[in-house]
Predict the structure of FAD-binding PCMH-type domain-containing protein.
Amino acid sequence: MKFFPVLLSFLLLSVSCATSAPVSFDGFLQCLARKTQSTLPIFDSIYTTQNTSYDSILHARINNLVYSTPEYPKPLAIIAVKSVSHIQATILCAKHNGLQVKTRSGGHDFEGISYVSDVPFVMIDMFIHLNSIDVNVADESAWVQSGALIGQIYHAISTKTRVYGFPAGICPKMAAGGHFGGGGYGVMMRKYGLAIDNIVDAKIITANGKLLDRKSMGEDLFWAIRGGGSPNFGVILSWKLKLAPVPANVTVFNVKRTIAQGATDLVYKWQNVAPRMPKDLFLRAMPQVKKNSTTGEKTVEVSFIAHFLGSSDKLVALLSKRFPELGIQSTDCHEMSWVESIVFWADYPLGTPISVLLNTTNMAVYSKGKSDYVKEPLSKDVIESIWKHMIKIEKILLDINPYGGRMAEISATATPYPHRAGNLFHVMYYTYWTEAGINATNRYVRLTRELADMMTPYVSKNPREAYQNYKDLDIGVNQDNQTDFATAAVYGMKYYKDNFARLVLVKTMIDPENFFKNKQSIPTLPRVGDGYIRGILPLIESAIG
Ligand SMILES: Cc1cc2nc3c(=O)[nH]c(=O)nc-3n(C[C@H](O)[C@H](O)[C@H](O)COP(=O)(O)OP(=O)(O)OC[C@H]3O[C@@H](n4cnc5c(N)ncnc54)[C@H](O)[C@@H]3O)c2cc1C
Ligand SMILES: *[C@@H]1O[C@H](CO)[C@@H](O)[C@H](O)[C@H]1NC(C)=O
Ligand SMILES: *[C@@H]1O[C@H](CO)[C@@H](O)[C@H](O)[C@H]1NC(C)=O
Ligand SMILES: *[C@@H]1O[C@H](CO)[C@@H](O)[C@H](O)[C@H]1NC(C)=O
Ligand SMILES: *[C@@H]1O[C@H](CO)[C@@H](O)[C@H](O)[C@H]1NC(C)=O
Ligand SMILES: *[C@@H]1O[C@H](CO)[C@@H](O)[C@H](O)[C@H]1NC(C)=O
Ligand SMILES: *[C@@H]1O[C@H](CO)[C@@H](O)[C@H](O)[C@H]1NC(C)=O
């Protein structure tokens, strides 16, 4: 914070420095063919709108249907890359022919950033071919390519060992590519932190086509790609994970309480107990709207979903001491292997075989997501206002995730993800609907914004923090082809707080022409003439130490 007012007064204007090449899609295709003919020919990896399977490939990994419609421009070509040489050729040929590159792995971006742009672009698809998973239990590690889905990674680990897992996210169908670059939280975050806190190496292809690993990229870039947003620094090929020990059996439950059953009091109490529980327990509160099928009356029902790295007996004893109001009994609890707990948390019925994690078929919906960090407990009145708004929206759920534990121990500058100590919980507002059309979208987006507006006084302030993996264009948006620094500082401070300055420096070093840009990308330092704006570098350097 300390230097930003000064910085902003210098940098209200962004100056686009690189004169981009004129747009030529034919030139791009010819360049690709030329560059790859001696290595691995690329022609059977290119899907243009002329190819019959273009549409099915494009839509297979669009998770938010809002961005599936034609008013959001789609890639001129999908390059289903098979090798590093394909990625290098795509980047260089796009650059020389005035095209932008987007990279898509799992397609779970909330705002379609991986497959939509207002300027002519091509999309690198990582999901189809670059999805290998190589687990090495002896070394307690795994190399995974960006196109691997989180569920596939968990499944692969479980085929080698029952006593290791990995602390990443809950939805099995998002991919390593976007998820790891933005943080990646899940049921073991209070024990081990985020995915990025457990990533020990990575391979990236940069804007000048270089393939780098941790050693050759250096610690600044390695720091930046773990939480600073995957698309900002290049195309990330693969990640090396440090596996995390888990007991042979863990314990889970999912108990539901409606407003009439005391949900308001329970959530009120939850705020004070869940963030202070031992690290082995992650107890999420997930409110949803429930309709009585006979009367049509709506209420809110809160699912309290637990993940405990220990036995059912211990969990029951812990909760009867610390949260007796929840009334947990051993009959509520289920002991199972860690990978089975992933299936349970993904909301499949008990007993569903773990092979369901290998199902990659996406279930797309229309959606609008937003996120907040909460540092002071909410009053019962505020909780009741949330219920009222939710009932009005109806098709909404909140994921309320307790912080504390390991999350409070890791320094706010250890990675670009700054939301560490001092948070009671993180809340995701996720409105999802199936009605097509702009009117439905406008209505649900408006209602979601109203709920977030209502929350303003009760959540983090100056800045109002947000989770980069729950991308939200409401909090500040640039153009696809032009990154205004002052605008970037607004969303940048919300996503990264003071880490934003170091991210700008790393970005300027690794991608000085700002080739990889999007509506919420990290900006480069603005330049005037041949140099960066005088005086800014030392200012930022002193600010980050
Ligand atoms: C249903 C659902 C559940 C979720 N659950 C969780 C959760 O439990 N925990 C959590 O932390 N988050 C969760 N998320 C958020 C998720 O982490 C992000 O949406 C994440 O960015 C998705 O990654 P992806 O590869 O699937 O998406 P994509 O849309 O493919 O990519 C997301 C962003 O990363 C970029 N990108 C992707 N791959 C690469 C690459 N190889 N190199 C460079 N840039 C790349 C894209 O260009 C885009 O900007 C969830 C999202 C959804 C929709
Ligand atoms: C797309 O169509 C072109 C022209 O018909 C063809 O040469 C190419 O092989 C097709 N691409 C794929 C991936 O099938
Ligand atoms: C950016 O793209 C828009 C169209 O989306 C165009 O009108 C504008 O001129 C472009 N700006 C630059 C700097 O290229
Ligand atoms: C629905 O409402 C009726 C009438 O009030 C009530 O008897 C019934 O228990 C309710 N059903 C559920 C599932 O809550
Ligand atoms: C795990 O729990 C299940 C269900 O209680 C039990 O059948 C199984 O023996 C346990 N496995 C281990 C390794 O403890
Ligand atoms: C895979 O998942 C999709 C989407 O949830 C579902 O429709 C399909 O039936 C599943 N396939 C199998 C083989 O289970
Ligand atoms: C959408 O809303 C507009 C303005 O209210 C209305 O004229 C139009 O008929 C609506 N469209 C649909 C498909 O409902």
